[in-house]
Amino acid sequence: MLTDTHAHLDFPEFDGQLDAVIARAREAGVHRIITVGIDRESCRKSLAIAEKYDNVFAVLGLHPCNVLDEGAMDFLEELPALARHPKVVAIGETGMDYHHLPSRELLKRDKSEAVFGALQAGTAEAVAADIADGAMKSAQAEAFKAQLDLAVELGRNVVIHQREAWDDALDILRLYTGKLRAVFHCFGGSPEAAAEIAAMGHLVSFTGIVTFKNATLVQQTAKSVAADGYMVETDCPYLAPVPFRGKTCEPAHVKLTAKKIAELREESVEKVAIDTQRVACAFYGIS
User: Fold this and answer.
1) 202 contacts: CB under 8 Å, gap ≥ 6
2) What is the domain partition of the chain in residue ranges?
3) Do residues 143 and 169 touch, judged by C-beta distance below 8 A?
4) Helix axes of 124-154 and 72-83: crossing angle, nearest 10 degrees
C-alpha cells in the first residue's frame, strides 16, 4: 500500500477524469492521495475533492509564486477557516521560490543582450527589477511566516516548496523549531542538504525525477536518507516518472517512484511502501 503524498487533483488535466484516475491509483496499490491547494480557487477545489473521495485528503495553502496575485494575501485571512476542516491534514504548499522572480521572468521572455545588460547595470530597468524582486521576496516571507503560524495554531505540519531560496527558507523555518514538522516536497537536493533538514526534524519527499537518467544527485540522496526520513509523491500532473516522462503524471505513477527508490536502496518495494506509508500516516495524522 502506498500514499501519493503530493498531488494536484484540482488541476485541469484531471477535469472529468477523477473517478478513473483514483481507480487506477487503487489498482496500482496507491490507496491514499494527498491533494494540495496553491491559492484560493485551488484550495476550495482540493477540499471539495477530498470531501467526495474517502481516500483523498487535502493540504491547503498559498504557493510562494502566487503571493502577488490579486487577492492572494487576503486569502490568508480566509485560510484558517478552510484549514479547520477534518479532511485537511497539513498547511501548504508554502515556502520560498526565487526561480520565478520578476527579473528572471523578464530574462526568460527576452534573452537579448540588451535586456541582460540592463539587468546587470545601474539602469532604470535594473532598479525596477530589483524593486520587483524585493517585493516578491518580502511577500513570500510574509506569507510563509503566516502559514507557519497557522500550522502552529492548528497543530498541523507544513508542506514546503523551496526553489533556489534555500538559505532564506531555512532561516525562517528555524524560527519554528520544535513547534511543527515540515516536508520539503519534490526534493532534488544533495545528501548533505537532506541531512541538514533531518537534523532540524523535518522530512524530504521524492518525485518521479528520481527515475530520470540525469538525476544522479537526487538518486544519491534517495539512497542516503533514513527509512523514517522520506516520503514519495507524484506532484502530478507534473514530473511523470520513466517510462511516462513528458506525459501527464497521475497518482498511480508513484508506484514507479517507489520501485526506483527500492532499487537504489537495495530494498524490496514492499519495504519502501511500508516505510513511506508509516511516515506519511504519522506526518499527516492519518490512521
Assistant:
1) 173, 181, 182, 183, 184
2) 2-96+138-284
3) no
4) 10
Q: What confidence tens digit (pLDDT) does each residue in 136-151 have?
A: 999 999 999 999 999 9
What is d(CA 15, CA 11) in angstroms, rounded to the nearest whole number?
7
Could you give the 3-state DSSP secondary structure of residue 141?
helix
User: pLDDT digit string (tens) for 166-195?
Assistant: 999 999 999 999 999 999 999 999 999 999
Please write the tens of the pLDDT for every residue from 250-268. Answer: 999 999 999 999 999 999 9
Please spell the DSSP secondary structure of 3-38, one letter per residue: EEEEE-TTSGGGTTTHHHHHHHHHHTTEEEEEEE--
The torsion angles phi and psi of 252, rounded to 5 degrees, stand at: -55, -25
Q: Residue 251 carries which DSSP code?
A: G
Query: CA-to-CA distance for 156 and 151, rounded, in angstroms?
Result: 5
Alpha carbons 33 and 132: distance in angstroms, whole number: 37
Q: Is the pLDDT of residue 129 over 90?
A: no
Angle, nearest 10°, between helix axes 124-154 and 102-109? 130
Architecture of the 2-96+138-284 domain: Alpha-Beta Barrel (3.20)
CA distance 252 to 3: 10
Q: What cell numbers appear for 198 in the block?
A: 533531518
164 Cβ partners below 8 Å, 6+ apart? 97, 98, 99
Among all chains, which residue has been given the C-alpha cell 532564506?
168
Q: Are 196 and 221 in contact (CB under 8 A)?
A: no
Q: How far is 266 from 287, CA to CA, in rounded Å?
A: 28
Q: For residue 97, with 0-12 CB atoms within 10 Å meaning exposed, 13-18 middle and 19 or more buried, which class applies?
A: buried
Question: 10 Å Cβ neighbour count for 203?
Answer: 27
